[in-house]
Amino acid sequence: MDLSIIILNYKTLGLVKNCLKAIEDLALPYQYEIIVVDNNSGDDSVEYLREHYLNVKLIESSKNLGFAGGNNLGLKKASGKYILILNPDILILSTAVQTMFDFMARSPKVGLCGPKLKNPDDSLQYSCSRWPDWRLPFYRRTFLGRTKKGKLWTDNYLMKDWNHNSNKKVDALYFACVLVRKSAINEVGLLDERYFMYMEDLDWCRRFWQKNWEVWYVAEAEAVHYHQRESAVGRGVKGIFRKAGRVHMQSWIRYYFKWIKNTTNYK
C-alpha cells in the first residue's frame, strides 16, 4: 500500500463528505486507502458513512479521544508506506498530495512534511513554527499578544520573517494536513494521548527531531484550510478561561514539563 489517508470526524459529517469527494476528484495515482475515525460524534455520522462509503475503512470510537487519541486509532490500522493525516476542513489543491509524496520519496531523512496552507481568501495561513518558550499561552491566548513585545514574539514564533514561498526545514508544523513516513512512526511512536487537543503537533515534531527525522514545510504543495484555530484567538484575560483556552493551557503545562523544564525527557 502506497498511501493511507486518515480523516478524524467529530460532528463534522458535512465536511467529511466534502473532503472525501475532493480526494476522489484528485484521482491519485497510488494504491491508497481512506480511514475515517469517528470520535464518538453521537450523531448519524457512522451510519451514514457505513451506508454510503463502502470503500472507506470506518473506525468507531466508543468515546471522544481527542485529536491525538482519535488519529492514533487510524495510525494503528494504516498500512500505507506514507500516511496523510487530514482534517476534514482541508481542501487539497491539485497535485499537493503527489508533490508531498514525491518529496518524501526522494528525501529519505524526512519523516514528516506539510503543505503551504491558505485561507479561503487565498491569503497565507501560518502553519509552521519555531520552538516556543514559556510565553506561548500568554501571547497566543490573551491581550498580551497585541502588545509590541507580544507581536514581536508571535511573529518570530510563526516565522513571519520568511515569505513561505520555498521548501524549508522547520522546527514544527501544525497538523491540519501532514504526510508522515510509516517507518518513522515505527521508530518515533504514536501521538502522545496525554494531549487531548493542542500541543500534540509540537510534541510529535520534537520527537521526530530527537530521532533524527527531519520535518519540512513543502511550499510547492498547497491546501486551503477553512478553520480558524481557536487556540490562536486571544480576547483579553478571558481567553485563558474559555473552554478552548483551558484545554490549551492544560496541554501547554504538559508540554512545558515534558520539554522545556525537563530538557532530557524525549519520550
Walk me through the structure:
With 267 residues, this protein is an alpha/beta fold. The protein has one domain: Spore Coat Polysaccharide Biosynthesis Protein SpsA, Chain A, CATH 3.90.550.10. Helix content is 37%, strand content 23%. Strands 1, 2, 3, 4, 5, 6, 7, 9, 11 and 12 form a ten-stranded mixed beta sheet that branches. It has a two-stranded antiparallel sheet with strand order 8-10. Strand 6 (110-118) and strand 7 form a beta hairpin. The chain is globular and about 50 Å long. Residues 230-241 have low confidence and may be disordered.
How many beta-strand segments?
A: 12
Structurally, the number of domains stands at 1
Specify the CATH architecture.
Answer: Alpha-Beta Complex
Number of helices: 10
Which sequence of SSEs, written as H and E, runs from N to C? EHEHEHEEHEEEHHEEEHHEHH
Percentage of residues in strands: 15-25%
Unreliable parts: 230-241
**How far apart are the termini?**
29 Å
Q: Averaging pLDDT over every residue, what do you get?
A: 90
Global structural class: alpha/beta
Q: Label the overall shape.
A: globular
CATH topology: Spore Coat Polysaccharide Biosynthesis Protein SpsA, Chain A
* CATH class bucket: Alpha Beta
Largest sheet: 10 strands, mixed
CATH homologous superfamily? Spore Coat Polysaccharide Biosynthesis Protein SpsA, Chain A
Oligomer: single chain
Please tell me how large the radius of gyration is: 18 Å
Q: Portion of residues in helices?
A: 25-40%
